[in-house]
Design goal:
two-stranded antiparallel sheet; mainly alpha
């Protein structure tokens, strides 16, 4: 998963939840990533759902754990937790759904056969 640059309460940072971060997230929150996303969007989240999503997202994009953890905790001391919801939702959605520009089902370098118009038309099993 490519890191995504997000403007949020902490400034502008890259976030990514790769497989290692998704596993750490589910372990630390005792729930799978989609359940965490659903809890956040439904308003039934736990504080660690937000903290761990942000922290793991920063780590997945390359920030050191020793830098990401204290930064997140400092920001949570300065701001209300609800201010972090949109960013957590965006990080999880990007990890679970991918980029909006990434067309599902279309393969690069594969061309679909075009209708050449040379097919015979059939009616009642007989060529026209």
């Amino acid at each position: 998963m490519e890191a995504k640059s997000i403007e949020w309460i902490g400034g502008e940072h890259e976030f990514a939840l790769n497989i290692g971060q998704l596993r750490a997230l589910q372990k630390n929150c005792n729930a799978g990533p989609e359940t965490i996303l659903l809890r956040i969007t439904a308003g039934t989240w736990f504080i660690d759902d937000l903290i761990e999503t942000l922290r793991q997202g920063l780590i997945g994009a390359g920030m050191a754990n020793k830098e990401a953890g204290p930064m997140i905790m400092h920001l949570f001391e300065l701001h209300g937790a609800l201010e972090f919801k949109p960013t957590a939702i965006e990080i999880l959605t990007n990890a679970l759904v991918g980029e909006e520009d990434d067309p599902v089902g279309e393969l690069d370098g594969v061309r679909q056969q075009e209708n050449s118009g040379s097919s015979q038309s059939f009616t009642n099993g007989e060529p026209q």
